[in-house]
TrEMBL record:
InterPro entries: Aa-tRNA-synt_II, aa-tRNA-synth_II, aa-tRNA-synth_II/BPL/LPL, EpmA, Lys-tRNA-synth_II_C. Coiled coil: none annotated. GO terms for molecular function: ATP binding; lysine-tRNA ligase activity; tRNA binding. One of its GO terms (biological process) is lysyl-tRNA aminoacylation. This is Lysyl-tRNA synthetase, class 2. Keywords: Aminoacyl-tRNA synthetase, ATP-binding, Ligase, Nucleotide-binding. One of its GO terms (cellular component) is cytosol. It comes from Magnetospirillum fulvum (Rhodospirillum fulvum). The keyword Aminoacyl-tRNA synthetase applies. Residues 28-351 form the Aminoacyl-transfer RNA synthetases class-II family profile domain.
């Protein structure tokens, strides 16, 4: 293993290893300062919410870390989790009356480690009330450009490829991406947005040579086509916003206007790397509870365990959350693209051993 390349159990603190990463880490510090300056001049409050939560988050495919919270007065221990996102707590702050908030949060996802994944990483998450989802696209374009200036670069780069974050980012619907790159009319395979037709999308996958298994659901097949035929094309001239996702693939987003087949969701991509995920936030507590129950049933069926719902979050929705939009951006991935790093460990001050 070369000096500076960090693996599980490696002594990252050895001076010769740290020296290889030091310049990128110093750049990371400048990017952090640029992020805080960006939000400060726009009137956002920087908030801090607990990593320890009653619910880690409801994404069925994410594995979480659990622990026990001991009552110092002799009551029973409570099972708690490290959050996979600060989303629920931050939305409670919207209910409390905070209109513009952001957080550089430490988040935790078990069983995730690759060139672009780490079990503990930094999520930059921000929320705005009473704005359309497109406002977060504008935020993201300007923020990334500000971070590039702080890093002293004019292009994002990864593995010999680069793209220009300063030109207008492309805005592409999921349906158009499927037509352009896979030749598939995606929405035709989901005539009922809540009960998309697995056999229709499976037939389309077979037609273009994407293999699926009998146990794959509609969503699973869509993701396979995404990874195989669409993501490799995203963000290689300028970064791209992939927007208007099928409703069944946007569990925390509201429907997009009168077209209930799609939801107010976008993901941002650069150089084939997913950078951010955003929602026009669902504020209907009953609908959110229904979607949580579906997620729990799926997690239980697939993995034999389901995350608990945050009843306090649902109570906050019932109390009344304002119209809002929110986005989660993988900060370490952004630093990777701004420094040309190969692996996420290369831009972490102290990788998990």
């Amino acid at each position: 293993m070369s000096a500076g390349k960090i693996g599980v159990g490696e002594q990252w603190w050895r001076p010769e290893r740290f020296a290889v990463r030091r310049e990128r880490l110093e750049t990371r510090a400048r990017i952090v300062a640029a992020v805080r300056a960006f939000f400060a001049v726009r009137g956002f409050a920087e908030v801090e919410t607990p990593c320890l939560q009653a619910s880690p988050g409801m994404e069925p495919h994410l594995k979480w870390f659990s622990t026990a919270l001991t009552d110092p007065y002799g009551g029973p221990d409570r099972t708690m989790s490290l959050h996979t996102s600060p989303e629920f707590a931050m939305k409670k702050l919207l209910v409390a009356g905070m209109p513009k908030i952001y957080q550089l949060a430490r988040v935790f996802r078990n069983a995730e480690r690759s060139d672009t994944h780490h079990p503990e990483f930094t999520m930059l998450e921000w929320y705005r009330t009473d704005v359309p989802l497109e406002a977060l696209m504008d935020d993201t374009e300007t923020l990334v450009a500000s971070c590039a200036e702080a890093a002293g670069v004019t292009r994002l780069s990864r593995r010999g490829r680069s793209c220009d974050p300063f030109q207008p980012w492309r805005r592409l619907s999921v349906a158009q991406a499927f037509r352009d790159y896979a030749g598939i009319d995606l929405l035709a395979t989901a005539p009922d947005p809540l009960q998309p037709q697995r056999e229709l999308i499976a037939a389309e996958a077979a037609r273009i040579g994407v293999s699926v298994s009998p146990s794959d659901r509609w969503d699973d097949i869509v993701f396979r086509i995404m990874m195989d035929r669409i993501e490799p094309h995203l963000g290689f001239d300028a970064p791209v916003f992939l927007h208007s996702w099928p409703l069944s693939m946007a569990a925390l987003a509201r429907p997009l206007g009168a077209d209930n087949r799609v939801a107010e969701r976008f993901e941002a991509y650069a150089l084939g790397v997913e950078l951010a995920n955003a929602f026009g936030e669902l504020t209907d507590a009953a609908e959110q509870r229904r979607r949580f129950a579906e997620d729990q049933a799926l997690a239980q069926a697939l993995y034999g365990a389901a995350p608990p719902a945050d009843e306090d979050f649902l109570a906050a929705l019932e109390f009344g959350m304002p119209d809002s939009a929110g986005i989660a951006l993988g900060f370490d991935r952004l630093v990777m693209l701004l420094t040309g790093a190969e692996r996420i460990d290369d831009v972490l001050w102290a990788p998990v051993g």
